Amino acid sequence: MARMTGRRALFAVPVLLAVTLGVFAVAAAAPFDPVRAYAGTAGLTASQANLDQIRHNLGVDQPLLGRWWHWLTGALTGDLGDSATLRAPVSQVIGERIGWSVLLCALAFVIAIVVGTLLGVLAARRPGSMLDRAVTSAAYTLEAAPPFWLGLLAVWLFALKLGVLPAGGLTDTGSGIATAGQVARHVVLPALVLAVSQLPWFVLYVRQGVGDALEEDPVRGARARGLSERTVLFQHALRSGLLPVLTLVGSRVPELITGALLVESVFSWPGIAAATVDAATSVDFPLLAALTVLATIAVLIGNLLSDLLYGLADPRVGFDG
Amino acid sequence: MRSRSIRSAAAAALAGTVALTAAACSTPSGGKGGASGAQDSAVVGIAYEPESLSPLLGYGKDGNSKIFDGLLTHDADMKLKPALAAKLPEVSDDGRTYTYTLRDGVTFSDGKPFTADDVVFTYETILDEKTNNASKAELDALEKVEKKDARTVVFHLKYPYAPFAERTVLPIAPQHIAGKQDINHGSFTTAPIGTGPYILTKWSKGEKLTFKANPHYWGGAPKVKNFTMAIIKDDDVRATRLRSGDLDGAILPPNLAATFKSDQDKKSLAAKTFDYRTVTLPTANKVTGDKAVRRALDIAVDRKAMVDGILDGAGKPAYGPVPTDSPWFAKGTERAHDLKKAEQILDDAGWKKGDNGIRAKDGQPASFKLWYLAGDKLRQEHALAFASDAKKAGVEVKVESGPWEAIMPNMKTDAVLAGGGSPADPDFDQYLLLHSSLAGDGFNNMSRYDNPKVDKALVDARRTDDKAARKAGYDTVQRELVDDPAYVFLTHIDHLYVVKDRWKDLTTQVEPHDHGLASGPWWNVEDWQPAA
């Protein structure tokens, strides 16, 4: 287990190098002009000489490889550079935002896994039953619903019609302090919407996995031995039915990041997603590279996690990858 | 045993996530906010977030920042009045020296006194080439800033520039703080200290800016003690949060503002603006470069129909950068919608109608491309309306959309649906739009218009201090645009705000194209009084 983790960590180094170089190359090839993005509306009346000076100051007139190397050597010594669009050090930008994104994603993920597994098992227990059909068709409908739309719907229902939950922000809009109680109230809607948008995949996978497992010989054997339905379902069927779900856990990470992007913008959640979009469209190299490294690390850890869980759940697989 | 290991692994993973979350959550930049009471706090929704709050990088350059003050500021009628200066500047006879006497006893919100050094520091830093300020060309006329004594600052200009005083509304930064850090990326860019009526307590990027009243403000402590600007980019979300009671006011597009008309406890304010939409007529294009085509298009468009149809009545027809209700507008230059006359002009110039209804001259079809910024619905509707009006006169306009990156390389020969507008001085818009020396310089003079008479009038009008002579100059420019249009100006657009009925006598200023933090009824939130 430790060996696999170590090997994966070692493998991550070239992957990260290639990804960051790729980010710089793609951004350099993109038609977006970082200086124009930096100048914003002021750039519409700025003189060409002024824009050229800013181009030089920002260092974006340097060749691609030089810029990448400069960024990389800086990053290794802990200096992530300065974000051009947000006019602040990258480490500060990320530090201020990432916690809120992680909080939102972690909550949503846990809710999606727990509720998804529960609904999936319930649906698989009686294939074709009313409950199964209701859950499955709801899952397929949700699968097609964009998180953005779900978010607006949730705001309309809970904030506008029922008035029970705040419509957005991290704290009450008029308040300046982020107390735990306020954050807890404000995180409910965005976390639920993000969870619901991730739910269908877990429901359908668990339903399929557990459903198949119920048909398998060991389960039928267990039933024949007279074990209780509960034991059969949770000890036998769920364990082998859960295997595909464990792989899913890792592979959902990128989807979770994109989902968070839309949800954060609907709920004005001060996370990192909005910064990612801004960084990409304004070719903010230092911020973009740092965020890409983070996203890559998240995906790699997601994959490692699902493989580790898979190995723990099914000893036949082992940890040799 | 095996199920236990799954459980413990899951628990470990969960514990790790929670720990990571908790560790990362402690970082948002702190600050003390006040608890919000009903009468002394206000929350407004805005669509735009500044990249920086440092005046050295361009924040608040048009005046009216809540955190800072300039030497001068604007009153409700956009007239200049003293702020950090004790009175309006003394201008030398040759118009090249501006002397400001500073107000006594002003302190920054950290308690340190405001001095002449801060003024010199602010202007010198903005002009420094190492400072990434994209608006520094606005101070092009400035040669140097000189501190004469502790309370007197003198600006020396390279050439006489009548509207220079309008530029000194830009906020003054404290040298003792901003001078000690990286101008472009230091903490001053996000945690500013100023002399203004409000103190920034927290900027949660992407979410909101919170302010508390500055109790030692030289203009008197504001009645609204806590002020919050929530940043909500999506129009629908902003309207929803206004309706849910979360916001006290918000900027809204016409169709959403209309949904609040029947609300008893809210009122709508329409701010008059200099915000125009126009079609560039590139001179390098064989069709739009023909004066007959330009004149014909200028009267073939139905501006009134655009105001009614596209803007829902919230705006007015535009015949040039100056709105018709401005004192700078040259009366008599309004053009009526006259399709017959447009066709006559084209016929006379040899643009003959073909079988398909499109005119042609010497084998050149009367057809050109018109770009608009993708995703901007208002520009799209203007572009389509313009194309449909042009078609009636036999000119084919092929409308296409794209980001600025796609539009820019084609601006020399293709028309663009552009926007702009700056109310402070007619020079600010007209010189950039029309002077031949700026043809094709970035987004300036996109039509590459070259009219010696206009050039001369523009230069004369910016160099004299005599109000009547300036008015005569800009009248000449506007008359010239009737005979030889540089652009087809379509509309001036009102900005709409919906606000709760909790304060007395809310007003709006005349607004520029770019409506940032300072625009809207909250332009003078420091003067708001609770309604009884």
From TrEMBL, chain A:
<keyword id="KW-0813">Transport</keyword>
<keyword id="KW-1133">Transmembrane helix</keyword>
<feature type="transmembrane region" description="Helical">
    <location>
        <begin position="98"/>
        <end position="124"/>
    </location>
</feature>
<feature type="transmembrane region" description="Helical">
    <location>
        <begin position="285"/>
        <end position="305"/>
    </location>
</feature>
<feature type="transmembrane region" description="Helical">
    <location>
        <begin position="145"/>
        <end position="167"/>
    </location>
</feature>
<dbReference type="InterPro" id="IPR000515">
    <property type="entry name" value="MetI-like"/>
</dbReference>
<comment type="similarity">
    <text>Belongs to the binding-protein-dependent transport system permease family.</text>
</comment>
<keyword id="KW-0472">Membrane</keyword>
<keyword id="KW-0812">Transmembrane</keyword>
<dbReference type="GO" id="GO:0055085">
    <property type="term" value="P:transmembrane transport"/>
</dbReference>
<feature type="transmembrane region" description="Helical">
    <location>
        <begin position="187"/>
        <end position="206"/>
    </location>
</feature>
<dbReference type="Pfam" id="PF19300">
    <property type="entry name" value="BPD_transp_1_N"/>
</dbReference>
<dbReference type="InterPro" id="IPR035906">
    <property type="entry name" value="MetI-like_sf"/>
</dbReference>
<dbReference type="GO" id="GO:0005886">
    <property type="term" value="C:plasma membrane"/>
</dbReference>
<keyword id="KW-1003">Cell membrane</keyword>
<protein>
    <submittedName>
        <fullName>ABC transporter permease</fullName>
    </submittedName>
</protein>
<dbReference type="Pfam" id="PF00528">
    <property type="entry name" value="BPD_transp_1"/>
</dbReference>
<feature type="domain" description="ABC transmembrane type-1">
    <location>
        <begin position="98"/>
        <end position="306"/>
    </location>
</feature>
<dbReference type="InterPro" id="IPR045621">
    <property type="entry name" value="BPD_transp_1_N"/>
</dbReference>
UniProtKB/TrEMBL annotation, chain B:
<feature type="signal peptide">
    <location>
        <begin position="1"/>
        <end position="24"/>
    </location>
</feature>
<dbReference type="Pfam" id="PF00496">
    <property type="entry name" value="SBP_bac_5"/>
</dbReference>
<dbReference type="GO" id="GO:1904680">
    <property type="term" value="F:peptide transmembrane transporter activity"/>
</dbReference>
<dbReference type="GO" id="GO:0043190">
    <property type="term" value="C:ATP-binding cassette (ABC) transporter complex"/>
</dbReference>
<dbReference type="GO" id="GO:0015833">
    <property type="term" value="P:peptide transport"/>
</dbReference>
<dbReference type="InterPro" id="IPR030678">
    <property type="entry name" value="Peptide/Ni-bd"/>
</dbReference>
<keyword id="KW-0813">Transport</keyword>
<dbReference type="GO" id="GO:0042597">
    <property type="term" value="C:periplasmic space"/>
</dbReference>
<dbReference type="InterPro" id="IPR039424">
    <property type="entry name" value="SBP_5"/>
</dbReference>
<feature type="domain" description="Solute-binding protein family 5">
    <location>
        <begin position="79"/>
        <end position="437"/>
    </location>
</feature>
<protein>
    <recommendedName>
        <fullName>Solute-binding protein family 5 domain-containing protein</fullName>
    </recommendedName>
</protein>
<keyword id="KW-0732">Signal</keyword>
<dbReference type="InterPro" id="IPR000914">
    <property type="entry name" value="SBP_5_dom"/>
</dbReference>
<comment type="similarity">
    <text>Belongs to the bacterial solute-binding protein 5 family.</text>
</comment>
